[in-house]
Design goal:
Oligomer: single chain
Largest sheet: none
Structural class: mainly alpha
Strand content: under 5%
Helix content: over 70%
Mean pLDDT: 81
Order of helices and strands: HHHHHHHHHHHHHHHHHHHH
Number of helices: 20
Number of strands: 0
Low-confidence stretches: 36-55
Length: 373
């Protein structure tokens, strides 16, 4: 099915069919076992599940061979060299030329991802340089944030329109959320007269960030639920959206919860580590938030929601062990052992755990979720 997907995308890239037609043809042909391996077609005819229940349908297809890896290494080395030797406009010219050859003509997935990241990095570096060299912008967060985010939507939209890279669309959508945040902070700063809203209104800032993260999660789920079989480009876009949304949602929730808990006790919030080791309740709060995120990841079949919380899981576990007077020399090893055990249990038993949880949900919800494996 992956080869069929690549073939249809190549056909769209050469103008034989449109990208929308390619996305509609893939599930149509797959359902009729066209382009499916014989073993897969046989199992489908007998009504059996995929012959490999552990096959990962979550991640987009990055590499079709070592050729992709070799080309990607060359792209990275070339861009780094240009960045160090030439002026700031040489890398963006190289990105466009390489994208025309490697993405539009040859349809190489891994170089497409690297070039998209390189474009975002170049835009970020250029805008940060401009903002930091302009005192009127660097001294006013509300205005500086808008100027910092504004170039991203246009540049990423043009890149996606030309090359149809799922990561570019995901980054474009995130840049819109960033622009929305900057506009909100500007509006709040105008009303309150504050030039640094996050510093002056920390709790309100956390709430705004949480609402934005929830909006990003809803958008990611719209892409995810529109392709439950994960055979079209929408699934790849959802993958990238979830990859960034998961930590944003987790840490905005954790930071807001900790700040509210500590503020209610008259304690000044410093940072996540100090808050965790400052009280048993705070460590338990973080642990519960991480476990809920892992549960969400199991339900929607996205491992990003598990990996996003591993650092917080380790910190919370260490804090709980310290509050229970565990020996300082053993805490580090205990934390590593517990986190490693959690990762192995979830990773090895992913399909079984997901089956157990999803089957407890209403039938209508089960039907919209990715299929159990």
């Amino acid at each position: 099915m992956s080869e069929l997907k690549v073939a249809l995308e190549d056909a769209a890239g050469e103008g034989i069919i449109s990208s929308g037609q390619a996305e509609r043809l893939l599930p149509y042909l797959t359902a009729r076992n066209i382009g499916v391996l014989p073993a897969q077609a046989l199992s489908s005819q007998h009504g059996q599940d995929d012959p490999n229940p552990l096959e990962d349908t979550e991640a987009p297809r990055f590499v079709r061979g070592f050729h992709d890896v070799l080309i990607t290494i060359g792209v990275i080395v070339l861009l780094i060299g240009l960045w160090g030797l030439a002026n700031r406009y040489a890398p963006i010219l190289a990105i466009v030329v390489l994208a025309e050859i490697l993405v539009r003509r040859q349809r190489l997935a891994l170089p497409a991802v690297v070039l998209t990241v390189a474009l975002a990095a170049w835009v970020f570096y250029t805008v940060v340089t401009y903002v930091s060299s302009t005192p009127a912008l660097s001294n006013d967060f509300t205005i500086g944030a808008i100027v910092l985010v504004a170039p991203f939507p246009l540049s990423l939209a043009l890149f996606y329109w030309r090359y149809r890279v799922p990561l570019a669309l995901a980054l474009f959508l995130f840049s819109l959320f960033g622009l929305f945040l900057a506009a909100v902070f500007y509006a709040v700063g105008t009303v309150t007269g504050s030039s640094n809203v996050p510093a002056d209104y920390p709790i309100q800032t956390m709430m705004i960030l949480l609402v934005t993260a929830l909006g990003s999660f809803i958008l990611a789920m719209r892409y995810d639920l529109s392709d439950p079989q994960r055979v079209t480009r929408r699934s790849d876009v959802a993958f990238w959206l979830h990859l960034a949304t998961a930590p944003a949602l987790l840490y905005s929730t954790i930071l807001l919860a900790l700040r509210l808990e500590l503020a209610s006790n008259g304690i000044v919030f410093t940072n996540l580590t100090d808050a965790l080791f400052g009280g048993y309740l705070q460590a338990v709060t973080v642990l519960v938030a991480v476990l809920v995120m892992m549960l969400i990841g199991l339900v929607i079949d996205r491992r990003a929601f598990v990996t996003a919380g591993l650092v917080s899981l380790g910190l919370a576990t260490a804090a709980i062990l310290r509050h229970n007077n565990a020996g300082l020399d053993k805490v580090g090893f205990l934390v590593l052992m517990i986190v490693g055990l959690v990762v192995l249990v979830i990773g090895i038993g992913w399909a079984d755990l997901r089956r157990l949880i999803v089957r407890c949900l209403p039938a209508g919800m089960q039907a919209r979720l990715p299929a159990l494996r």
